[in-house]
Amino acid sequence: MAEGAGDGSAVRKHGKIVHVPLGHKGMWVDFGLKRLFVMTIPWGDISTAYSTTGIPNIETYTGAPPATFRMLKYQALFNWLLRMPFMREKAIRKIRKGPAGPTDEQRVKAKSLVWGEVTTDSGQSARCRLHGPEGYTLTAHASLLITRKVLEKNIHTGYQTPAGCYGPDLVMEIPGVFREDCD
Question: Alpha-carbon distance 171 to 52, whole Å?
Answer without folding.
Answer: 14
